[in-house]
Fold these 2 entries.
Entry 1:
Amino acid sequence: MALLRYIGRRLLFVLPQLFGIVAVSFFLLKMIPGDPALLMLGPLASQEAIDEIRSVMGLDKSLIEQFIIYLERVLSGDLGTSWQTTKPVMEDLLKRFPATMELVTLSLLFALIIGIPIGILASLLKKSIINKFSTYYGLLAGSLPDFWLGLIFIFVFYTILGWAAAPMGRLDLGILPPTVVSGSYFIDSLIAGDWETFGNVVAHLTLPVLTLGLINAGPIIKMTQSTMDRLLESDHIRYARSCGLGEFQIVRRAFRNSLPSVLTIVSVLYSFLIGGAVLVEIVFSWGGAGQYALSGVLNADINPVMGFVVWSAILCLVLYLIVDLLYFAIDPRLRD
Amino acid sequence: MNTEISLSLNNLTVDYPGYKGSGTTAVKDVSFSISKGKVLGLVGESGAGKTSIARAITRQLVEPGEITGGEIFFEDKDIVTMSQKDLKSYLGSQISLIVPNPKSELDPLLTIGRQLGDVVRTHLKLSKSETKQAVLDVLEAVQIPDHNSRFSAYPHELSGGMAQRVIIAMSLICNPKFVISDDATSGLDVTVQREIMKLMQKIIKEKNLSVLFITRDIGLAAHFCDHLGLLFRGQIVELAPINEFFKNPIHPYSLALLSAFSHSAKWRKVYSTDPEKWSKEFFKDGNVPNSLIEVDEGHLVRMEK
Amino acid sequence: MKVLYLYCKDRPLIGFGYFFVFFLVILAIFADLICPWPPQTANPDDYLQAPSWRHLFGTDETGMDIFSRCIYSIRLDLSIAFLGTAVSAIVGTAIGALVGYYEARGRLKTVFSSFTMRALDVIQSFPVFVFAIALVAIFGQGLYSIIAAIAFVNMPIYVRLMRTQALSIRQMRYVEAAYLSGLSDVRLIIKHIVPNSMGPILSHLSVNVGWSVLLAAALSFAGAGVEAPTPEWGSMIAVGFKNIVTGQWWPSTFPGIVLGLTVFSFALIGASVEVLADPVRRRAAIAKY
């Protein structure tokens, strides 16, 4: 019951924000110079044809009217068509978002797997090399352009060593994608039990996940370390120590208490990466959602961009709800 | 003779080194001993070094504090030089600590039962059901009403007094021989404080515990202790059996403290001295004199020879 | 200055950060003297040369010298980053001070404050990168658009930092005293609130410059920033992108290294400013001397 109220409050707060996002992005994108009708028909089109298209697309109406029409359509699940792919945006995004989500999720999992142990060790061993290392790693990881790191990995592991798969999308050309269940090849090939495809999927995932994972491990290490530092000095951990609890128990308790902060930074990174992974997507020809939006922006193709913004806002919303549920599971104080 | 002593401090000194050598000596040459089954009250104002002593005994000093001299004997073993492993096996099982602000001393994410159970299982190798029984028993012993349901309660669901009882339970659960109570009731209402003190008194008598009772409240100490030590600027200025202390207080700080706590005008007059005078007399150049002089049997006072 | 020297003495890496930024500025100023080749002239005879004494960092597919281009890029990238950061800091601080000062000060003013904060929430919940690209697309590709986009994306941080500061400083006695003695709101903000809350903002500035360099390069890499022949690290990496698969690593690698070192240096400086701006931590850090 407390949980439902909690989620309800959250939604109440987020829905206006969602509306704001859609509104702002709509008006911003309407300001992009370039007439979509003209772009669609080419410079040689007759004035009548342009006018006709404009009225079909609703471009002759006032901005506010256009926005209301747009909202109505979005609410009924219609995100328009992209004139570049000539397909409904919804269809395109349903294909592309799983690719992005798969990449981002696995990268963050990898970042957590290396970030949390390093952060904890750095906090426990104050005077060790690992402490110094983690301090500078945080700064360095935040400084390297992820797209560049991706290129370097391609050069080393593909061009020179030949270990990695070609940076040309999510699968080798000869291999058919698994039957769509979730849209993530990683999951779908597992479901299908198709090990050959699965191996290929993993091979293609390795480098981009490594790139994004290593970069994003920086903030995770930093957050883990600083909250663990604070907690190890906290009253209740000190008290647990004076009760003679073993070091393992102490670290476990401190870590459990630092989970909410770690969770927060992960959710921030996650929502950032949904759009922010776009450059790495470009480098590995990933065909993700960010890439789709980017080409939309650069070609005055408004529907894909809007569709992307709406979708990523909704995904962030879902993400924050999941994070809230996890907070709820971790911290009994929220349950009242 | 020595076998009767539970814990003794010999010239314990605790330093907090500062920058450019501007450190503070929080505890200076403190010596006292506590016999089995006895309660020593340690009274002092904040900053006098009370908590540093408690933390030194459990070797849990806050950075950058460290023990720079002296010995702490617990049943013939020196805690200062003990290995971490040995220390761990003593803490919580032989020596336990009761702390103030119980709500921030309990892990907010774990149930009471779990936290008590963790301590039991660390020290006594009990099975799961035995552990649970031990926890329920101790919760009952500290008079927590409805202890079966409190077992699965979280710290934030408890009142301050209840949480304090949990802390006491935690300190008793492994049947320790020596308990340090560090300002244990300072955060509580007076009525709750009274109940807690009554409970502690009862348990101490039942289990024949040795206690170091640290407090700011000399009145509280008066009701509770067998011996009383007054701590001032990191040093003991007067140490005496409780009756002797109230009958014949000598050190001006003792007198000043007593007069401040006295409710009757008569007593206030008896105890009061001019603070200007005593501070000049007893702290030449801001220093407390180095020698403790035995003025009567077991009654030590710090003053110039 | 002396404090800085003492601080860096024990932390060579931080010292390196300061040194590197200083070094970059010198290189940028004397680029014309230092660079052996013109940065924008294609030389078909020399295309895709590996690094050698003739071309220190090699050449790209049109035969332009990468070393020279890397150095000329400093001018552009640092100017974009400095300007973008400066604009966002100034505008953001001003808005933040107003918002913080007016919060809970009366009807209309409070509405203004909470509206601004909600608007910031919306702006900050955008996918940052796509947002920046959209801004560039709106303003039209060009230097000023990039600066505007960077300034806009960074602004919310300064508003928030300043607001928190203003909220607490507003409560101080001396501010109340000044208010009661009839000082106007604007003067109060300029004279008391802004000067007394610069600490956290200063320490954020340096980190932010580095971050802006990264964003500018990323925009160019995505094709929404500086266009190809102009020397810019991000677009140079993009140009070298195709070559890396076939084994010519140098066109992308060198600009990336310079870019990374630059951002890293600013991050190091930021980390040290954070410590040095805080009197307590400053004393602790140079305690030995």
Entry 2:
Amino acid sequence: MWDRLREWFRERKEKLDLFDETQVDRQDNPLYILGQIVYFSWIAVVVSGILLMIWYEPTTHGAYNSILRIQKEVPLGWLIRGVHKYGADMLILAITLRIYRMYFLGEYKRPNELSWMILFGSLVLAMISGLTGYLLIWNQRAFWAAKVVLTVAVYLDELPVIGQTRFGSAIAFAFLGGPAEGQGTLTRFYAIHFGISALLLVAAEIYFYFTRRRRFVLSPTALVVLTLMLVVTSYVFPAEMGRRADPNRTPLPILSDWYFLALYQYVKYTPPLWAGLGPGLLIAYGMLVPFLDRSKGRRPAERPFFTVVGVMALVYFLVFTALIMFNIAVIGRDPHVVLLVTAATLALGLVLEFRYRRRRKLAEAAAPAPAPRAAPARAAAG
Amino acid sequence: MDRRAFLKVLSAVPVLGGLAAFLAPVLRYLKPNLEPGLGVPQGKVPPDLAEGDLPKGEPLPIATLEELREPWSSKFFVFTQKYPQYTPELAKAATVPGVAIKLPWKLAFPGYKGGREPTDVVIFSRICPHLGCIFNYVPNWREVTAGYGGYVPPEDRRHGLMACPCHLSIYDPADREQPGRVLSGPAPRPPRYFTYEIRDGVIVVTGAEPGGIA
């Protein structure tokens, strides 16, 4: 048992490919430089972040003003801040696109399970990093986003049995630095925001050392294009400041960073305990999908159920984001619609899956009986 | 399971136990609250905060009864509470915004004499019991319908309502059975109330229902 686990791990470790280095010779396909874009934007974000620390003041009184100064007065401050903000957006966008690519093309299958799990975990960490970093501006949007997210944790106390340890409140208190959002929260978020990247950078270096992979495989053209994208975006759309945080007033249309918007709409629809459990289940599904999906083929049509689930997730993400941006939510009606659509889509996925399997079985039976099951799936699929 | 594997499992138990014993104080390191006896000298914690995590606040006069004479008129205020914390003052202040609302009828409100005497002034913490945003008191229910997700109240509730901008919970401050009843939205319970007294025609807030994150 132990040895088999070790063997499994060893095999995955050899095939570990976190930044697409081994696939980048397919330069005709932009989908296969996403891993490189992740690494590039990550380094850009870390470097600009360290430069921002020179001027940033992590106090509730000074934070907003110091960022205003970086944006308006410090020479090239707008550029550093723009690269940090848009670099982070690029990072999360690239991870997300890469996750969808790996999902729809079945790239999470053996032997890439570990690569997929690390990538998926890094998306979660990048989102936490985004949330903690956003609070550092100490503006309205960030203040209420942080408070809402940490209050969600409190409801985990409602779970049977393990809720009695009150671990949900403990999580909230540990992040808040007290029972209210204030200086303690800002200090802790600053530490977390910096700490995630610092520790992961060390982990990435260990990965490079042991796998002897190269860090940058991007062509010079791609490097220049990406850098120009960051610079031009920072110039044309200076990173927003928002309004200074006011703990006694929540503005009426209150939004979050773009990658949390869909989640915000979902939170309107569910009882608060499920506001925490829902994303938890989503993360669990993402982490476990390489083990849930036992289908043989890799193409989307060869595993209809998982394709349908993926399309549904993408559509929900886009629709919920649109709904919250236009402030549309009919609480009495929408949750039923969502549940119904979800159930219908899952049923459709199952029907397609069974139909596909039956057809393949018939095709296999009709085929002039191939020898053993040595190379069946690929041949049948191709 | 062979003998070797069994012994391995057996020896893993004290190793894991030792690891847990090491991790427990690390978790305590993350907890922000002061606890007497955990390295904080007994006398140093402000005496009125010494009871643990429960917040304490000074009584606060918020309005005269004269100000709140019209039905559905309201007054916003901010109540300050202190918690025992690792700060230079060993106490941290958090503010709780509240609203006092004058109702056209009397009802039992738990914040006034424990609900034993009916009153027509209700005072709520504006911290949404759902996820902690600050909700608004909206005297005109049409604004609730327009701005807070299209909820149309039934005929008998078309009066001042409370509504939260974050996730569109809507509360009825004047519900006779349960002041602050949730009419719509994801909120699990009515908003927390303030306890108050009336001293010489002045409404004085004396404390807040405990719970929630300020």
